[in-house]
Every structure is written in C-alpha cells, then in structure tokens.
Amino acid sequence: MRSVAELEAYMDSQKPDTSPAKLAADYLLVGEEMLENWLVAQERVPTDDKKEGFRILALHRQGCKGEPSFNACRETCRELAYYYNLITMEPGSDEMSSRLAMMDMVAKHLVLFIGNKMMDDQVGEFCCSAKVNRLSSEKLQEQVGVNNG
Amino acid sequence: MTVIIDKPDLKKKYKKVAYYPGCALEGSAIPYDKSTRAIGKELGLELVDVKDWNCCGAMEVKNLDPEVETYLSSRVLSNAKNLNKMDVVMAPCNGCYKNLKQAEHELGHREKSKQVVDKISKKAGHETYEVGDVETIHALDWIKMGYGEDELRKKIKGGLKGLKIANYYGCMYTRPRNIFPEKAPGAGGDDLIKPHYMDDLLAVAGAENVDFALKTACCGGAHTLSDRDMSTKLVLNILEAAEAAGAEVIATECPTCHSGLEMHQIRALKRLSKKTNVKVIYFTQLLGMAMGLSARKVGLNGNISDSRGLMKEKGII
C-alpha cells in the first residue's frame, strides 16, 4: 500500500504510456489504496471482499462504519467503478481519451478528499457528517461547557 | 431519457410558498436571490418571505451545540407555520435546505432534540415546531414539481441552445440520505446518487447537459478557512473535470459551492498558475435568461465569474 503522499504524487505525475485498461486498473487501485490508508489510520484491517464486483466498494462500505461522513465519497468510488467498466468493456470507444481523463479526475478527487479528512479531524465536517458530531454532542458539550438550559 | 413527473397536487401546493433565503442569499449570493425571485414572478409562483427568520445554524453553531442548531432551524419552520400560516418552505441554499430537513428528522426521531427545542422555544416566547407541520423543499423541487417541465417549456423564449452545461449539485442536496425520504429509490423525488432535477430543467431550457462525474462531489467549502489550499485543489479538479467533459458553464444551486468555485478559480490561477475558463452561473439565472429576462434582472453582473461575454456570444443575452 502506497502512502497518501505517494498517491498524491502519482496523481500529479505524468501517467505512463500504457494501455487504457491498465491505466484504468491503476486508477482503481489508487482509490483502493486511499481507502486502505483511511482504514489503517483507524486501526482497522482493510477487507479483501468485493461488493458488486469491486473491492473499492467493499472498502468504502467498511470505511463508513461508525463514520457516516465518509459517505460523501461513496459516489466518487462508484464513479471510479463506472469508468473502469466503460474503459475495459468498450476498448474501441471513440470516447476513450475523455473517459480516461474523467477517471483521472475522479481518482484525484478521492485522493484529495480522503487525504484532507485524514489530516484534519472534524474540520470540514459541515456537510454530511453532522451525525458524527451529533452522536458525540454530550461529550462535545462537556468539552466546551455549553449548556442548553 | 428524462422522466417527467407531473403531480398536479404539488403544482397547487407549491404555487405559493414561504421563502427562506437564509444568510447567504442576502450576502454573497444576492444574484441567486435576485434570480430566484425574478423567475418566481415570471412563472407566477408566489414567494412569501418567512417572517422574522434567523440563521439555520449551518456552520459554526453546529460544531458547538447541535441541539441549538436544530432549535434554530425549527424556529424558521415554526415561524413559517405560525406567523406566515404556510405549510411549505422553499430554501434555495443547500445548507439551509439540508438543515431544515435535518431538524425535521431529528425532532421526529430524537426525543432529546424535541425536549431541547420545546424548552428553548418556551423560553424565547414563541410556539414550538411540531413535526410534519411544514414541508421543506429546494428551489429545484419548487420549479420542477411546482411548475412542471411542460409548462416551463412554454415559457422559454431565446433558450440556452448551444450552451454546454455541467450541472453541479454539491454535497448537501442529497446527503445525509436519511433526512430525504422523498428521494429514496422509488419515492418519486430526485435521485440520491445521480440527481437530475437541474439537468431536467436546463434541458427544457435548451441547454446541452454534459456527462459530469463530479456532480455531487465535495467542493471543499467547509475547508475554506481551515485549509484554503485544499479547497483550491478540490475546486480546480471540479473545474477541470467540467471542462474535460466539454462544459462551458457549471450550473450551481448552492451558494457555498458557487462562491467557492468562483473564488478558488481565481485563486488557482494566482497560486497554482492553473487557468480554467468555465463560467459559474446559478441555475436560476440560466433559467431566467432562457425565459428572456435580462442579464441585469437575474443579477448576472453580480457574479464574480463574468459570463456576460459568453452569454452574448451564444446569443442568450
């Protein structure tokens, strides 16, 4: 498993001159390794299971347990699986270059999103992670001394 | 294929709704407010401002005390019900929309939230909010379900023909999923995974919607103060993805996303020397122009992303 920094560097680098299918597999692997990083940082063992034929979807589901905010990258993972299917199942498509470009950007989004979540606990959890803060609200209130009365 | 859902009962119900602009639409998103009111007037949909409305508690309050956040949103709903005597609130801001929805959910599922809200409401001297009194909808629901695509088609004048658009919904229009039961599969609302209401409306207006993979991806809006560089990278990736998909315009329906895209587009150029040309425009502005409203009337000159040249070039204004 490559580190977050290595994965970021890979996404910023010029991609190797290889077949579209190989490149698509690389992008999928980047996504899987980002999710592995997320799980390992929480002292969990990344699953080898697959969901709907993709390990990335099983890893994402595992990553969401106890952390609903992680659902914010569910569609990103699904988009990676979607582009992987398009690229590998239609090798002669006229849209190959645009599909590869899009998969590159989707993978990059996942790297940036998870990378940032790992850096700053609870920062940026304004959107869909309200439940996390809510679950710990009693503890939070103790910490900041907020009293509803 | 676009599935057209026509529910006459909703057309009647949404014809006159309480309008909750929230703080963004009175500040950084004035063009969104202006264009929303303008198209409402044009379509004969009446907006009545929620009386004495307050902040929904979206950002700072939530992190200090989520119960107070629930209270703040519930007060908006209570005012709509008890002061305006309305049973539908329309919130164009994704943050407000999500927060009002969440308050409704919390009050219906969490006894402590109900107790806290009742207690603070009593102390503040106003009627408490009762679950189910008010339905919260987004501006997209308001037009799509309250006016309908067939009727909207008749209102289109110049249209957006030839304009390639990436529809960007941001994170809060569909998340967290449990607070949007009407968007559950089979429920007849918008899609939780690939929302399409904005796509549908702009397609009716003549736009060519591109296949955009990041339509619900995080824009980094909440990181803007804590880690601006990360926000810039996330936004740049969204802008580049839209351009790679062939879009000339990113249509928005969230003021946080919109201002983030606009500001970080400039910052990406300054800090990373990455230039993108895609324009950022609220969907209400696009619909308004398609209906023949002037650029001024929909507040196009108020956007940071200056799209007037492109709109002229396309013959839209």
| Count of distinct strands of chain A | 0
Query: How many separate domains of chain B?
Result: 2
Give the chain pair forming the largest contact, with residue counts: A-B, 40 and 45 residues
Spans of chain A with pLDDT under 50 lasting ≥5 residues? 123-137, 143-149
What multimeric state do the chains show?
heterodimer
- Based on secondary structure, the structural category of chain A is mainly alpha
CATH class of the largest domain in chain B: Alpha Beta
Number of helices of chain B: 13
Would you tell me the overall average pLDDT of chain A? Answer: 83
Span from first to last CA of chain B? 29 Å
The span between the termini of chain A is: 50 Å
Structure annotation, total helices of chain A: 7
> What is the 3D shape of chain B?
globular
**Class inferred from helices and paired strands of chain B:** alpha/beta
Unreliable stretches of chain B, pLDDT < 50, 5 or more residues?
none
Main beta sheet strand tally, sense and closure of chain A = none
Q: Give the overall average pLDDT of chain B.
A: 92
Helix-strand string of chain A? HHHHHHH
Number of strands of chain B: 8
Explain how this protein is built.
- The complex is a heterodimer of chains A (149) and B (317).
- With 149 residues, chain A is an all-alpha fold.
- Chain A has one domain (4-120).
- Chain A is built from seven helices and no strands.
- In chain A, helix 3 (55-64) packs antiparallel against helix 4.
- The longest helix of chain A has 24 residues, at 96-119.
- The termini of chain A are far apart.
- By secondary structure, chain B is α/β, with parallel strands linked by helices.
- Chain B has two domains: 10-137, Glutathione S-transferase Yfyf (Class Pi), Chain A, domain 2, CATH 1.20.1050; 157-313, Rossmann fold, CATH 3.40.50.11810.
- Chain B has helices at residues 8-13, 30-43, 60-64, 66-82, 94-109, 111-124, 139-146, 149-155, 197-204, 228-244, 255-272, 283-290, 308-313, and strands at 16-19, 46-49, 88-90, 135-137, 164-168, 208-209, 249-252, 279-282.
- In chain B, strands 2-1-3-4 form a four-stranded parallel sheet, sandwiched between helices.
- The two termini of chain B are 29 Å apart.
- The chains are: A mainly alpha (149), B alpha/beta (317).
- The A-B interface holds A 68, 71-73, 75-76, 78-79, 82-83, 98, 101-102, 105-106, 108-109, 112-113, 116, 119-120, 122-128, 130-131, 133-134, 137, 140-141, 144, 146, 148-149 and B 58-59, 62-69, 95, 98, 102, 106, 116, 119-120, 171-172, 175-177, 193-194, 213-214, 216-218, 220-223, 226-227, 230, 233-234, 237-238, 240-241, 244-246.
